[in-house]
């Protein structure tokens, strides 16, 4: 079913200037002056990779860093490389050979999204984009660890790929990445024995489980690094269509603003959710065995590859254009069509409970709700086109990153290129549609949920910690889906967590940052006030979380057999089903939109009433 797979590959993408990688294109690394002619080693290579020349407009002092292309040793593909940029925590820490400190790699998702874009746009690196161009970042993660950003798979960002050399599946992504690591750690041998923390976002939730699986498949003597923890925000662990549809009822409970607090439509959503079998009941531990495989049954409207595509313009398919437009005045914006107002007659939607699946939408409940929002709910109803609807961060009808200068100009500047030893025969783009080297351009590998038990067993045996976390404001891959994935995993002899996650964690200023929970080496966290790109709105919050809970071993929220969660406290914000209501205000341009108190109260009373029915 190629169409379904197409949805799968696109949906997790966060998109700026989308372009499609031309399968006839190729690129190769550039040989800068002084490149050693001998194999990768600590002789001369670190000096070569050091970013010694000034970067354009960077007038503040940055940490020492190293950047360039490292071969993936892909058979018959001498030009295949992954591009890295690593920033030192302390002067000399990356080249140190007698350190046991953690080091970290960050991977973007997509597939096809550049990790350099994550560094520059998501407050991760020391230099970030702001409305005035490149600026220093107060919350750069090099403050607490050596951090490498790596463009992967080959061909993404500044990573190069020979003709026909794109990765064909997740196994290749993983073997390329491990070969890259083997060569990288020849240049920086101190990294070989230091604990490695691999973190990613979104579609990296595909890459990372496959990378770890391939690593576990290697004989210990063949491992060039020591994984200590891996993690991912909004990880793509389930099939995309399932991942996106099953949490919609919880998304609406979190942000009833989407449906204008309409009780009638809320009940209709609940009914459809139940009829479609999405009302999975989470228990702690999970009883009744594994959840069945869910398939989204489509209605008359058919399978709309991503959102609205078959009828008007697509929602998610064009989503990258939206964000591109909102943030960066992308040329895409000129191509989006104005949504005909005549299509917006809300009376055409009949929300009478009829006990049967909506014939038009089928179980594509996600699109039913989002279409309702666009049809009826101010301010979304003002959007020119469905493609302007940013479902990755609900309170921000205008993206929090609106107004940022796009990094494309800075990254492609020749001064930047030569300082970071980037290839010269390709344009750096924050996102390309990854082609997977097949005509459909789809990732043929199965979703990680299918081997999660085995992965957890290996991780437990090797003492590799796992972190899956999610932003509470993300409606694209909302946290309920992640909780389903966790309750559908068996490790340490138990299916799912044995206790419901409900411990509050706090940021450096004492503000509740979200919920954290860990059992048997698997940590789950929810971040308040965060969308799909978890680090954009509250960089100070995720900074503290990653420092303390991922790199650090903070045990707030830790539950184990010997120490009965002394540090567990009920999170006051959570509803009985684990939903944490989002913020009241919706931002639209310079307006803060709220609904009348009486409307909100009536909805909340109704919501709690339905929950009492369901959970008591
Ligand atoms: C990269 O590592 C592989 C495997 O050890 C090795 O065969 C290859 O020569 C290395 N590449 C370079 C350029 O040193
Ligand atoms: C990170 O380091 C920079 C410079 O070393 C410093 O100015 C900044 O305050 C640090 N940020 C945090 C959040 O500690
Ligand atoms: C590799 O790169 C070199 C130099 O850019 C180019 O001449 C050659 O054709 C490339 N080979 C492949 C297989 O892409
Ligand atoms: C688990 O480890 C074994 C080797 O011990 C390996 O063969 C297998 O592929 C690994 N599976 C996963 C999912 O990690
Ligand atoms: C979850 O529980 C409710 C209430 O008991 C029930 O109606 C529903 O069918 C259950 N969901 C599934 C998927 O079994
Ligand atoms: C639950 O896990 C099983 C495999 O253990 C898988 O077949 C099924 O699709 C999963 N269901 C969901 C909803 O993730
Ligand atoms: C709405 O649906 C209900 C139940 O199917 C039906 O009885 C009713 O006539 C419909 N209303 C309109 C205006 O179509
Ligand atoms: C949205 O508007 C379209 C066009 O009027 C209509 O066909 C559709 O039923 C509406 N959908 C919802 C969920 O309101
Ligand atoms: C550096 O800043 C100037 C002034 O804002 C701008 O015109 C120029 O394009 C910037 N250079 C790069 C490479 O971003
Ligand atoms: C940047 O470098 C490329 C290749 O080295 C060259 O073709 C191009 O003219 C340069 N651009 C500028 C503005 O100097
Ligand atoms: C259990 O938790 C305590 C902290 O509460 C920790 O010190 C101990 O190592 C944990 N034991 C295991 C087996 O995880
Ligand atoms: C929170 O967790 C504690 C045990 O850790 C449990 O007793 C309590 O019922 C939980 N509360 C909710 C709302 O799940």
UniProtKB/TrEMBL annotation:
Disordered: annotated span: 329-350
A molecular function GO annotation: serine-type carboxypeptidase activity
Record-linked InterPro entries: AB_hydrolase_fold, Peptidase_S10, Ser_caboxypep_ser_AS
Biological processes annotated in GO: proteolysis
Enzyme class, broadest EC rank: hydrolase
PROSITE patterns: CARBOXYPEPT_SER_SER (PS00131)
Record's keyword annotation contains Hydrolase: yes
EC number: 3.4.16.-
One Pfam family here: Peptidase_S10
UniProt keyword Protease present: yes
Signal peptide location: 1-23
Keyword terms of this UniProt record: Carboxypeptidase, Glycoprotein, Hydrolase, Protease, Signal
Family recorded in the similarity comment: Belongs to the peptidase S10 family.
Protein name stated in the entry: Carboxypeptidase
């Amino acid at each position: 079913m190629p169409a379904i797979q197409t949805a799968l590959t696109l949906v997790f993408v966060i998109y700026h200037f989308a372009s499609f990688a031309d399968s006839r294109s190729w690129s190769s690394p550039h040989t800068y002056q002084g490149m050693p002619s001998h194999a990768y080693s600590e002789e001369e290579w670190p000096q070569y990779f050091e970013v010694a020349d000034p970067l354009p407009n960077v007038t503040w002092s940055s940490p020492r860093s190293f950047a360039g292309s490292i071969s993936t040793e892909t058979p018959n593909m001498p030009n295949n490389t992954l591009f890295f940029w690593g920033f030192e925590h302390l002067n000399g820490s990356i080249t140190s050979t007698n350190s046991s400190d953690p080091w970290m790699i960050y991977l973007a998702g997509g597939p096809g999204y550049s990790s350099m874009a994550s560094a520059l746009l998501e407050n991760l690196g020391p230099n970030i984009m702001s409305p005035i161009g490149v600026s220093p970042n107060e919350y750069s993660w090099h403050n607490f660890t050596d951090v490498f950003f790596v463009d992967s798979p080959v061909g993404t960002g500044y990573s190069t790929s020979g003709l026909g050399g794109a990765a064909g599946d997740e196994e290749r992504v993983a073997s390329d990445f491990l070969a890259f690591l083997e060569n990288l750690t020849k240049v920086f041998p101190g990294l070989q024995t230091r604990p490695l923390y691999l973190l990613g976002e979104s579609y990296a939730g595909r890459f990372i489980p496959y990378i770890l699986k391939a690593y576990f498949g290697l004989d210990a003597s063949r491992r060039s690094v020591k994984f200590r923890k891996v993690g991912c925000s909004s990880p793509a662990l389930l099939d995309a269509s399932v991942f996106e549809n099953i949490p919609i009822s919880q998304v609406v409970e979190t942000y009833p603003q989407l449906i204008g607090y309409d009780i009638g439509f809320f009940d209709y959503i609940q009914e459809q959710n139940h009829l479609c079998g999405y009302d999975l009941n989470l228990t702690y531990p999970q009883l009744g065995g594994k959840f069945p495989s869910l398939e989204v049954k489509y209605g008359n409207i058919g399978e709309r590859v991503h959102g609205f595509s078959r009828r008007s313009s697509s929602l998610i398919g064009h989503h990258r254009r939206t964000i591109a437009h909102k943030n960066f005045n992308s040329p895409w914006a000129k191509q989006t069509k104005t949504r005909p107002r005549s299509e917006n007659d809300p009376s055409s939607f009949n929300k009478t409970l009829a006990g049967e699946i909506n014939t038009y939408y089928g179980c594509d409940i996600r699109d039913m709700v989002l279409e309702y929002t666009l049809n009826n709910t101010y301010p979304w109803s003002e959007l020119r086109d469905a493609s302007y609807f940013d479902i990755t961060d609900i309170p921000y009808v205008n993206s929090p990153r609106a107004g940022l200068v796009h990094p494309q100009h800075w990254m492609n500047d020749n001064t930047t290129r030569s300082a970071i030893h980037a290839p010269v025969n390709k344009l750096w783009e924050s996102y390309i549609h990854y082609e997977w080297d097949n005509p459909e351009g789809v990732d043929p590998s199965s979703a990680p949920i299918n081997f999660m038990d085995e992965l957890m067993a290996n991780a437990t045996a090797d003492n590799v910690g796992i972190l899956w976390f999610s932003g509470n404001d993300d409606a694209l891959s909302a946290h309920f889906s992640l909780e389903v994935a966790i309750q559908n995993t068996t490790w340490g002899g138990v299916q799912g967590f044995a206790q419901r996650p409900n411990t509050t964690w706090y940021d450096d200023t004492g503000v509740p940052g979200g919920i954290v929970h860990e059992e048997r080496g698997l940590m789950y966290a929810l971040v308040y006030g965060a969308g799909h790109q978890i680090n954009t709105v509250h960089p100070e919050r995720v900074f503290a979380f990653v420092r303390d809970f991922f790199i650090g071993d903070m045990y707030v929220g830790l539950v184990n057999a010997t120490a009965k969660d002394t540090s567990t406290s009920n999170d006051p914000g959570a509803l009985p089903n684990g939903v944490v209501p989002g913020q009241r205000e919706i931002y639209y341009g310079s307006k803060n939109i709220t609904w009348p108190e009486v409307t909100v109260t009536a909805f909340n009373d109704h919501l709690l009433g339905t929950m009492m029915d369901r959970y008591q």
